[in-house]
Design brief:
Layout: E1 4-11, E2 16-25, E3 28-38, H1 45-63, E4 67-71, H2 79-98, E5 103-106, H3 108-116, H4 123-133, H5 145-160, E6 169-170, H6 173-179, E7 189-190, E8 193-194
Parallel strand pairs: 1-4, 4-5
Antiparallel strand pairs: 1-2, 2-3, 5-6, 7-8
Helix pairs in contact: 1-2, 3-5, 4-5
Length: 195
């Protein structure tokens, strides 16, 4: 049993990034913060990525989480949207790795299942269950459901503590590379030097 743990949960996105921070003391959970990073006003995709990195880093520096739980991109029909979402997730993960924060990815279905018992639950159902579990007053709930999606990732991670998981977890850059060797391009030696 963990004595005290702070979990940062992120729902990545290039339009809105949702986040939630949980403090776990034994079996008790308290929400420390929940919010969104609204990126709609930025037209440049790379500027959006920079804002995601900066905001994730500021959350880490403010709340000092022990771990990051992040929603994995789901597979959709629009390849461009998937690429942008993957970049947003990667940038948030990079900020955590930059601060040596371990990361665990959770599929959206797994998060919904953990929170509601139904992998096809709506965002509204997830938000309502979190409100009840964490005793969040209705007036403190945000209209953007991306915030509760970020909080849901953190709560899902709390529910997995002490249980074996099949989700991907990384403890740093070396661990990330070791677990993704087939996706990482190795440098080629060119006349006695690496290129």
């Amino acid at each position: 049993m963990v004595k005290e743990l702070i979990i940062l949960g992120i729902d990545p996105g290039t339009t809105i990034m949702g986040y939630g921070i949980l403090k776990v003391t034994g079996n008790k959970t308290d929400m420390l913060a929940m919010g969104v990073l609204d990126l709609k006003k930025y037209k440049d995709h790379y500027l959006k990525l920079q804002r995601i990195f900066a905001r994730t880093l500021s959350l880490i520096d403010e709340f000092h989480p022990d771990c990051l739980a992040i929603e994995a991109p789901f597979f959709g029909k629009n390849v461009q949207s998937m690429l942008k979402l993957g970049r947003a997730q990667g940038v948030a993960m990079s900020a955590a790795l930059y601060r040596d924060i371990p990361i665990t990815e959770y599929a959206p279905l797994k998060i919904k299942m953990a929170i509601t018992g139904n992998g096809n639950a709506s965002k509204e159902q997830v938000a309502d269950m979190l409100r009840r579990y964490l005793n969040i007053p209705k007036e403190s709930m945000l209209p953007q459901l991306d915030a509760t999606d970020g909080l849901a990732a953190a709560y899902c991670h709390f529910l997995q503590l002490g249980r074996p998981t099949s989700e991907k977890a990384y403890t740093g850059w070396k661990d990330f590379i070791a677990k993704n060797e087939n996706k990482v391009k190795k440098p080629k030696a060119v006349k006695g030097r690496l290129s």
